[in-house]
């Protein structure tokens, strides 16, 4: 594998932005790729994939290097490109490649790196590359065996999943269009019955720049993980309902709800950030959806919508531990204090926004976390407070070991 200095420098610069400047990985990579228009698709893919891989395995890389060169390495002193180049060299060796004869790598001892890596891998928090606090909370809430298994899954690369927009095209028609472009296409192969509700309108493809594709621009599909798609099916949707998506973001689930309802009824998509709702409007127009109304959340929103919704989706803010495959830098930005604060926010949302639901209506509380403290525990707390007002219908937890992202969803009916 031939290395090019400019590409390694770009990876080092991206890592510095992520770990020193606190920039999110996707933004750091986007910045780097914009800096040189002469980079071809292979170069750009190398920069993006290498950066994400190193972020994913950051602690494993750092601890291996530290064990080999403890006299010159401290995590808190990572402040220049030379440090990141040495960590890249470590990662490159750990992957089984040889280093080029560059001056920057003269101090790297391959045998020492590989020998120390064997010892580092014996410790789970290093081997699976997570902070101490996260390892502790995972074991406490999920048990050692489950946690170990899910960590391994979370360190795999996420699949690229398309939700076919059935308002515009049939699944087999889209499959044919993609195959004609030599794009590898497959369906959900997992035998579990949990995927039955969505698999017929879901395609899995190899990673590529989907946003530039004609089919994407025409609104024939959305990029949406299979586990995320299960949430809308939990709402028990029919045509003509009034649905409130109270934490809509850029609206992926609102778009899916509209497709399931065949663009008949009313969807009110709410969020605290106007820019996300602007993006949702663009996506809805592209998808040919006319039943979505957007609303910027204000202090009057709940009162204005009280007792109006047949269905209510609360896809609440969470730790995001179920989607670390997609956002590996999140584990380096999260902390226990954040999780404790987000649990308070979650309980406030479910307690306050449940007033939007009509009697007899159904709401779904959902997170992209795998921690029971953000999931089952929150639902139980809500129901204990609202005894006699709401009843539990069913819940489902989807773990990364099920093949896709980790999600939780609970259906609750207002009495």
Number of domains: 3
Average pLDDT level: 93
Count of DSSP strands: 11
Contiguous runs where pLDDT drops below 50 for at least 5 residues: none
Order of strands, main sheet, comes to 7-6-5-8-9-11-10
Structural class: alpha/beta
* Strand proportion: 15-25%
Q: What is the class of the largest domain in the CATH system?
A: Alpha Beta
CATH homologous superfamily of the largest domain - what is it?
Vaccinia Virus protein VP39
Count the DSSP helices.
18
- Return the string of H and E elements: HHHHHHHHHEHEEHEHEHEHEHEHHEHEE
Question: Can you put this structure into words, describing what you see?
Answer:
The chain has 415 residues and is of the alpha/beta class. It folds into 3 domains: 5-129, N-utilizing Substance Protein B Homolog, Chain A; 159-224, Sun protein, domain 3 (Alpha-Beta Plaits, 2-Layer Sandwich); 236-414, 3-Layer(aba) Sandwich (Rossmann fold). It is 44% helix and 15% strand. The chain contains 18 helices and 11 strands. The strands form 2 sheets. It has a 7-stranded mixed β-sheet, with helices on both faces. It has a 4-stranded antiparallel β-sheet with strand order 2-3-1-4, with helices on one face. Helix 4 (58-68) packs across helix 6 and helix 17 (336-353) packs across helix 18.
